[in-house]
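Work Package 3 (structural annotation) set out to generate three-dimensional models for the target panel prioritized at the project kickoff. During this period the team completed the workflow that converts sequence records into discrete structure tokens, so that structures can be stored uniformly alongside our sequence database. As a representative example, we reproduce one entry of 494 residues exactly as it appears in the project archive.
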Amino acid sequence: MQRLSAIDLTVLGIYLIAVVGLGAWFARRNRTSAHFMAASGSLPGWVVGLSIFGTFLSSNTFIGVPGKAYGGNWNAFVFSLTLPLAAWVAVKYFVPFYRGSGEISAYHHLEKRFGPWARSYALACYLLTQLARVGAILFGVSMALHALTGWSLPAIILAAGVAVTLYTLLGGIEAVIWTDVIQSLVLLVGAVVIAVLLIVDHPHGASEALHLAADADKFSLGSFAVNFTQSTFWVVVLFGLFINLNNFGIDQNFVQRYHTARDDAAAKRSVWLGALLYVPVSALFFLIGSLLFSYYEASPGLLEELQASYPDGFADNVLPHFIANKLPLGVAGLLLAAICAAAMSSIDTSLNSSATVTLKDFFQRYLKRGEDDKDALQILRGATLAWGVLGTGVALAMMGQKSLLDAWWKLSGIFAGGMLGLFLLGLIARKADNASALIGVAIGVLVICWMTFDKAEWIPKNIRSPFHANMITVIGTLTIFLAGLLLSRLRRQN
């Protein structure tokens, strides 16, 4: 396999230096904790919308999605189709709710609704989710860099972790959002370039490129059978809807962005822009995966080289391999910058939001620290550094995963499964009481653990969960909501 040239590495280096420099430039404006966390509510809707779009994108999108389409089909694309519905719910209910509350923390209202335990539970779930997210994304981009450069994978993970932590620590959310805008544009250009080259340079022409993929059923959305033990169309629909409602409704990454918009109308526009832009871009990346399958099937020599380079599985490495071997000088560096952009636009968001809830929901709530603005800024920057270090550690621990997208989906389903159920219970079931919510969460956590560890030897085979892993968040959410609702009604009757 060819490695990147000095020109390509120079392009990549310039891009990374520019991003860190942008963070340093915004550091001059971060004189208050309010600006670090919410840019003082001064940003236009289109900027926040592109940032939301950039948050949806990651190295999982750039590497994992084409890899998923290459090795399978478009079943996972169904996830994206649920975004418009989730966005409508967010615009109608979630955005007005959070902007009306005046609280930047997504979990402050849970304490007002159910008590301190609810806030602490949601905080723990969120931070674990973000650790898994940062780790998966950082590992994904590092794997691509490793394939293209031959550099040590652990060393790349460490270097990438330092770079993104540094500019997030310096620039706060304003730097995060504006770099997201730039990185989203770089990513879009990169994706379009790859798709065009795959079609134009196909050994048998453009029409054959699509025919080969279609004949192999690469455009299938999955089985439409009502079967929850496999990744059917309906399983992904349910998973996507619940995860995206979780994103818009209880995810600090998104809630925090609602507060950065200059007014309610701008916040609502940002949600629509981010959600609706992601759907066609997601389709583009699935198309890239299908075209890669067609390209390599029509190039036996290149396919043999790919298989020889990655004997343990090559689906997630097929795009980096194509970039290194088929793109002209400089263009490969640009595409690698796009991969880095996809990763950094998501990691920076996770680090900033994790630092925010660490200050608001832990230091200020339990330690009574951070009331002074200078102290608050110090805590925010220290927390950003700490979560960056921990996320890098998770990325190192993920080495050896066969499917990046599958790994991330399972981890997100486990940690996010409980938050949405509690949030909906508080929002919809107005008469649900503290005790009922607590018992409902306890039951839900037990169900989530049962489904998560379904392959464990200590669980008898006859009582193991029959459901697909993507159903964890669906069933966990419904269990908490329905159990809490039923118990509250029973308690009122008694």
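The radius of gyration is 22 Å.
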